[in-house]
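Appendix B. Chain record.
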Amino acid sequence: MSEAFTQIDGGGLDILVVADHASAHVPDDIDLDIDPVLLKDHIAVDIGVAEVSGTIARQLGCTAILGGVSRLVIDLNREDDAPGLLPVMSDGHVIPGNRDVDLAERMMRFHHPYHHRIGRLLDGMTSPFILSVHSFTPHLVSDPGQQRPWDIGVLYNEDDRAARIAIPLLETAGLKVGDQLPYSGKLLNATMNRHAEANGIPYLGVEMRQDLVGEAAGQRRFAEILGQIALECRNRLA
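Structure tokens predicted for this chain:
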């Protein structure tokens, strides 16, 4: 067990489900100095991602690794020197408790163990495929004029092999799909850049709209769709 991640061992299929922002947990010895209600908000956790990722792992018989702490403690989907790695502001909300924190300690405690575990899991697979699962909010407090009408976004940097397979399949499943929306994977793709693109491992990165996966029925629906599409992508690219 590790406080940096939760691992779900669903079986031996060479698909790894990765969920960087699956948890809202803040360890007892860390004080973010924020209203606790914000830990239920998108600034703290990708709503619905833990449930969808766990269901996919169990349905497909594969492994899932879920980030173990809130993105407000440390953002696991950021490079080691990236702005926002230790957020002091998020979507209009100040995070006072992060102003004078030892970043190196947070990295050693959470960021490094999480990414080392992903690397070890991938090293143990013969023909790995990664499904990266996130969720996005339909509305930003800091940019209320921005419209985010998509049901799901597909993100990638240079490697769009799985994206090109998945987008028409997602549309056939009845979803309104954003290609590099609500933002581009060329800007926000740190975990997949590190573990997938840098090693030639095919992957599918998705952003589900959080209001569609906030309840059990929606979570089951997206898990069924994404699990089958990830399997199809993996089979075509293996």
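Further analysis of this model is presented in Appendix C.
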